Structures are given as structure tokens and as C-alpha cells.
Fold this protein.
Amino acid sequence: MDPGPETAGGPNEYAGLHFIDGTSSQRSYAVVARRGHILLGVRFLGLVDGDQLGVPGKTYLHARVRSARDQALADQLDLEGGPDNVINLFQPQLALDEAWPGFTFEKIDGERASLILGMFINGSLIDDADAVIARIEDANLFRKLVHCVIDEAGPEHSIARAKLVGAWMFDQAKPSLARLKKSAEHQKIVLAAQKEFAELVEGQVEVVGPHLQQLNTIYHKHHQ
């Protein structure tokens, strides 16, 4: 369940954040750390049912971490910091992955280095969607993810508050959570209709056509 590059929140809500582009999206990663003109960004990626990963009863909440060069943003940050706060930590020989030795990047080329980072949370995305949604909405899971990224990058390189980035990531996740809620509600309707239908046709001898028509009627009754 991938939200794509869409981002919720007003233009001034996250005024303290800076962003870098993704491979096919603009300003889709919130920058959390910097080494010269190498920036480290993070964005919400999606939710996966743990059964697909060999961990039934869990849901995998994950983000993508991206290391990329952005000279224009680096210059902007230097101007914002003033002449006495220019960061000169970049070493020209560093590759995009070498700038962040705390990470083992999965995709590396001349434009970016990236990896997926996430956590397992209680509840199956398929069988217990309500619990998963509640867990995500009630806990500071995104802030925890951002803290992890900052810790691995090195707190001395951090340029963003984990709380603010976590709130932005939660806004990114809202479309996925809305779709998950809708899917869970639909599944409840289907199960309720199937249960009622099974009780009605118990022991009956009929052709299948009327049965299917009756099931469709019951489904729409529960859907109202």
C-alpha cells in the first residue's frame, strides 16, 4: 500500500522543513541530515501485511531513506544559517552511500543511494485493520522512525526536528490509512452479508441463480 508522492498539510504547516526530489517525484523527501551538499531525506513508503514477510499477525510500516546531492539546497541552507554557520563537512571523495556509514544502502547509482527502513507493529493489515489503524494514529511511530534515521546518520549532521518530520510523514500516510479504513469497512459488510446468506440458505434446494441474487440483495442491505 504505497501512497505515492502526494503530501497532505498546508504550505506553511511544515515551513521548517526542507525537501529533496525523488527519482520520479519532486520535493517528496523531507531532509533530516546534511553533509555539505549531500542531503539525507526520508518519506513514508507504505504498509505491508506481515504474512507476506513471514511474520503473520504483524504489519510492516516502512519508509524510504534517500541520499542525494543538491547544491542549490545546500547553498540555501548556508544562507539561512548565516556566514558563521556554513557547514563544511563534505569531502569531495565521498560517494553518496559513504557519506552515511551507519546505513547499508540497497540501491546505489550516481544520482542517489537509498534503502527501505521500517518497523513491525501488532495487528494484521488484512485481518485486523482497525487495530493497525488505531496503533498508527495513536502512537508516535513516525517520530520513532525519524529518530532512528537521525541516530544512524549521526546526530551531529541533523538539520530537522524528528517531531516535525514525523508529523509530515503521518500526513503522507493519511491517504493510505483512509483507503485501509474503507477496505476494512467493505470487508465487514461482505462478511456480514455472507453470514446472513449462509443462515438463510441452510438446507434449501434451489438453483444457484436465485441464491446469488439473494446474496446481492443482502449485500446492498448491509452496505446502506
Residues 162-201 form the longest helix (40 residues). Confidence is low (pLDDT under 50) at residues 2-11. The beta strands are 19-20, 29-35, 38-49, 58-69, 107-108, 113-122.
